[in-house]
Each structure stands twice: as C-alpha cells, then as structure tokens.
C-alpha cells in the first residue's frame, strides 16, 4: 500500500475514474473531475449533444465548425485511420451503434446489414478544412466515434493540468487509461499498475507493471462484450469486416509518454497481433507493450519503460 496517498473517485464517461494525490486536496480533485466532464461534453457520441454529434448530425449535408481541441483530435484520428493497413478507424460509428456492445439491445446483426454499413466507414470521406476548422462527413449516415482515443486524450489533458498546478506526483485512471506524474514518494521503482486477469474478478491480477511518469493503457476484449453461441462478441472491431477483431489476443497494454498514443496503439497492435506487433515495436523506442493471449501467455516487448512483476503463475511469461 502506498503511504500518504489520497484517492478520489467518480463515475464519468460511463467509467470509474480514480485520482491519486499525495496531499489532501478535494478542491483540486473537483477541478479535475470538472475538467473531465467538460472534455467529455465535446467528444461524446453517447448523448444527443456534443461537438462530435453536431458533425455526425450534419453528415451528407454540410460541414461543421468545431473547437480547436476537437479539430486537432479528429485530425490525429483521421491520419491514423487512413494509414495503410491500420486497424484503427474513427468512422466506425455506424458499426459500433449497430452492434450496441456494452449497451442495451446488443445482438449479432445479420451479415448483410453489416456489409451494408461498411461503405459508411470510409475515413477518406471525411473532409477536414484547416482554414475554418470544419469537418464534413461526405455521406449521409456516416458517424465519427472517438471512443478509442478520447479517454487517452483526456488523461493527457488532466496530466497537463496537474503539472501546471505544480503537482509533482499523481495518478489518474480513466477506466483503464492510466496516466501518471513522477513516482510515489519513497517508491523509486514507480507506480504499480495492475494487469487484470482476463474475465477474472476485479482484484485478480496477472501481474503488476511499474512505471514512472508514463501512461499505461489497456484494451481488452473482456472490458465490454456479450456471449452468444459460445462466442465472445467484444467492442474492438475489425474495420475491414465490421465484426469484433478475432485473433489470439485477450488484451494489449501500451506503455508510452502520451496516453493518447497508448490509446491509439492498443487498437493498432490489436489489429497486428503478437508477432507483427512485436516486430513493429522493435523500431519504436518510445513504446512498450504487453500482450495477453488466449493460450495463457503474457508477452512483453523488450521493456524499456516499465518493469513487470508476475503474480499469476498459471500464465506463461515471455519477452
Ligand atoms: P475501452 O473502451 O475499453 O477504453 P478502446 O480504447 O479500445 O477500449 O476503445 C474501444 C471503443 O473504440 C469502442 O467502444 C468503439 O467506440 C471504438 N472502436 C471500436 N473499434 C474501433 C476501431 N477499429 N477503430 C477505432 N475505434 C474503434
Ligand atoms: Mg480506451
Ligand atoms: Mg483505445
């Protein structure tokens, strides 16, 4: 147990949010939660109104001018989505909405319906105009979904705010997106962040990652899913098929400086799978990752930015 730590929690963006500080500062905690709410209000597609919803509602009709923050995040999402072979696609909205995974009324849609939605998920048909900061979805029915990166982006916004407030050590956990400042006092090895056992209880860990001033983002198929006919239908989609990504992975964790990068790369690495993912990471000195597979392996990239302590020895650890 970390000494002298003050924890503050809330439920925002449909997720449990946890802030850890080293002095008792409920005012600061309130400001952080307020900041998160404000950011969520820009990006959400789970409510009738937000800047992103205005873009979606004008699909096929007209461009919508947005705030600088929204334009910037959409520009990043666009660039990642149109890069060749990318498993990340921020125009996946119609598919996400049709499956409703994690929401009431989820079901496996008929194959022809999924096929009919795929033409609406073409990121090349998003027109970004830098001059007036406007976004236009060229076809009616297109929908932007920033669910794969909003939490990471907001975690970085919170980190910047805390830094600006002169806070030397802190941790923010946005429903599995962890961003940190410094290391806890008297714990030079850094923050300890649990890696969950897939489909296990909340307190069951495969191991613990230790980091200092880094972000740790995990995307797992066990986060939001439903089971039908012995299959697990989860919330990370293959944009090329419109079905949940189906490979050897149960989760991918990315350790990076920016939580935005962590959030992007969990999706990209999910699409690559273990072998291609490890090869990719070999050329990325700023990124590390931990893959957890269906055949009970925990596979770490050569760890430059974290240490891993295994807890569950029924799983095989390899580097
Ligand atoms: P979590 O919701 O657990 O943080 P992710 O960061 O992986 O997990 O984001 C998952 C969300 O991203 C989905 O709920 C959906 O809104 C969106 N999404 C699903 N598949 C893709 C994809 N291939 N590319 C971009 N966004 C996706
Ligand atoms: Mg996420
Ligand atoms: Mg993500």
TrEMBL record:
<keyword id="KW-0479">Metal-binding</keyword>
<protein>
    <recommendedName>
        <fullName>FAD:protein FMN transferase</fullName>
        <ecNumber>2.7.1.180</ecNumber>
    </recommendedName>
</protein>
<dbReference type="InterPro" id="IPR003374">
    <property type="entry name" value="ApbE-like_sf"/>
</dbReference>
<keyword id="KW-0460">Magnesium</keyword>
<keyword id="KW-0808">Transferase</keyword>
<keyword id="KW-0285">Flavoprotein</keyword>
<dbReference type="InterPro" id="IPR024932">
    <property type="entry name" value="ApbE"/>
</dbReference>
<comment type="similarity">
    <text>Belongs to the ApbE family.</text>
</comment>
<dbReference type="Pfam" id="PF02424">
    <property type="entry name" value="ApbE"/>
</dbReference>
<keyword id="KW-0274">FAD</keyword>
